Amino acid sequence: MNLLTQLELKMHFTESENILAQYILEHGEEVVKMSIHTFAKKTYSSPATIVRLAKKCGLSGFNDLKITLAKELSLHTSKEIDPNFPFDKDDDFNTIINNLTLLHKETIDDSAALLDQKTLSQCVKLLDKADSIDLYGLGNSLLVAQSFAHNMMRIGKQVNFRTMAGEQGFLARVSNPKHVAIIISYSGETDEIIRIAKTLKKQKTKIIAITSLGDNQLSHYSDLILHISSKEKIFNKMAPFSSLLSIQYICTMLYACFFSLNYNEHKAFKLHYDYEEDLRHPFYSPINEK
User: Fold this and answer.
1) CA contacts within 13 A on the Cβ side of 185
2) Residues 224-281: pLDDT tens digits?
3) Which residue, 84, 98, 213, 284, has fewest beta-carbon neighbours within 10 Å?
4) What are the two backbone dihedrals, phi and then psi, of residue 188, each rounded to the nearest 5 degrees?
5) Could you give a GO molecular-function term held by this entry (predicted)?
């Protein structure tokens, strides 16, 4: 997990460390130019507390924290569009449309750059061999999971997912080595998701994680990891514009590559299903193909 995300989540921080984390989030560009003594004075803390915070974030000390912070701030500011607040209150509709269009393009480019083809190939082979694919996620992740499940089932692949609170835990408990789990979590730190991952490991179920960059808890329980574009904050944002699109992109690539493994078979199954079962179009619709 990147530094800014860790600071925002404030996991296992003391009250003094929470104050430091909040100051860094609000004044990051100033912090990278400070000495440890200046930073301590600004936050009414001590150099020892600052070093302790850095080490809790997996860094060696304050200098390492500043270097890491500078790199992440550069990533956040190098793009024209802020993924957290892509438009301002005074922007007109044209500006909003242009900004979000550019943000979508940037997110797709970033997601494509993060997608490791070897890992993707391993994921697809796992899915192909599995008797069942079980999907896990919370909130907005479930919207993408539902779409992925819909596509996979229309080419004949068994997919399970649950939306009611607590049911995903039961799904994990009845899993087995013949199942493959896909866990979608931007932070990779949600308590319920980590409990599910632990249960799946006990059941000896292979786990594919779709999560953010960095060393989050979920990554430690996963067999394969597909990374989400990770420039969006956890809480301080208008909406999950970028992260949700990145998750959708990864799931689309999983589906498309899975489809390609048995292209003719999947195509025949899909078209047969559509013609025989899909009654969305009225008989005399101009888009009806019959």
Assistant:
1) 28
2) 999 998 888 888 899 999 999 999 999 999 999 999 999 999 999 998 887 777 666 5
3) 284
4) 70, 20
5) DNA binding
* Residue 179 parent element (H or E): strand 179-185
What's 144's domain CATH number?
Answer: 3.40.50.10490
pTM of the entire structure? 0.75
Contact 39, 227 (CB under 8 A): no
Task: Kindly state the tokens that stand for 290.
Answer: 């019959």
Number of domains observed in the structure of the chain: 2
- 287 lies in some domain: no
Residues 131 and 42 occupy one common structural domain: no
Say which residues have a Cβ less than 8 Å from residue 79's Cβ, sequence separation at least 6. 106, 231
Asked if residues 95 and 87 have their Cβ atoms less than 8 Å apart, the reply is: yes
| 55 and 154, same domain (yes or no) | no
User: Alpha-carbon distance 21 to 133, whole Å?
Assistant: 39
